Amino acid sequence: MQVEVWSDVVCPWCYIGKRRLERALDLFPHRDQVEVVWRSFQLDPSVPEGETHPTLPALAAKYGTSVEAMRANMARVEQLAADEGLEYHLADGISGNTLLAHELLHLAAEHGLRNELKERLLHAYFEEGRSVFEIDSLVPFAVEVGLDEAEVRAALTDRRYLPAVREDGATAQALGATGVPFFVVDRKYGAAGAQPAELLLQILERAWADAHPLVRLPAADGCTDGSCAV
Asked: Domain DSBA-like thioredoxin: where (predicted)?
């Protein structure tokens, strides 16, 4: 069974959703037969590459609210993240274009390291306050999970994975995704947003049941309706 997750590496709900999915998978009896595939989705592709800006005032302006109101909203999200074992510092965050990070994740996928890199980038951005927007910022994370530095620099310089990122975005749009995280199981069931682990578990169970229907055997001698006939 395949679980595809569209997300961005600077989306606070995506990291929370990742933890909730992991909790659901821990409770799923067929966990060893589930493949999780991380798909690319940019929250704000309009940000010029190479530019960064403080997140707090930018979000306040985007949603037409005050900086203090946005700070309070961020604090609520930080508490929800803490409930999942994550330590956010949203008000101190820096935003930028995540295209290179998504391209790097596609390179990691070719080496079987996409899950490891996804976790590393999320942790670096939300819990360490580090940049995930430039080649020089991304290279150390890639090397940490086992990728070759020269290959990483070459791939991000020649943009060889840009078409793959664009394809992920187009697929998300075709499936009806308007935000992230966006979970899709076997291309049959979907869930938008950082849904509770219990709901994600229900989706996994339903998808599994659909893919593995019970086989009904011919009736044999036995007990029915609370009684046995001899």
From this structure: 2-204
Cα–Cα nearest to 194, from 20, 43, 17, 38: 17
Report the pLDDT averaged over residues 133-162: 98
CA atoms within 13 A on the CB side of 2: 7
Q: Are 8 and 180 in contact (CB under 8 A)?
A: yes
Given the DSSP bridges, would you call strands 2-7 and 35-40 parallel, antiparallel or unpaired? Answer: parallel
99 DSSP assignment? H
Cite the DSSP H helix spans in the chain.
Answer: 12-27, 55-62, 67-83, 99-110, 114-127, 135-144, 149-158, 162-174, 197-211
For residue 167, give the 3-state DSSP assignment.
Answer: helix
- Report the alpha-carbon distance of residue 137 to residue 97 in Å, rounded: 13
pLDDT by residue (tens digit) across 14-37? 999 999 999 999 999 999 999 999
Please confirm whether the linkage preceding 213 is cis (ω < 30° from 0): no
| Whether the Cβ atoms of residue 12 and residue 45 lie closer than 8 Å to each other | no
CA distance 73 to 224: 58
Residue 10 DSSP code? T
d(CA 159, CA 152): 10
pTM of the model: 0.91
**Bridging pattern class, strands 182-185 and 189-192:** antiparallel
At 28-67, the pLDDT tens digits run 999 999 999 999 999 999 999 999 999 999 999 999 999 9
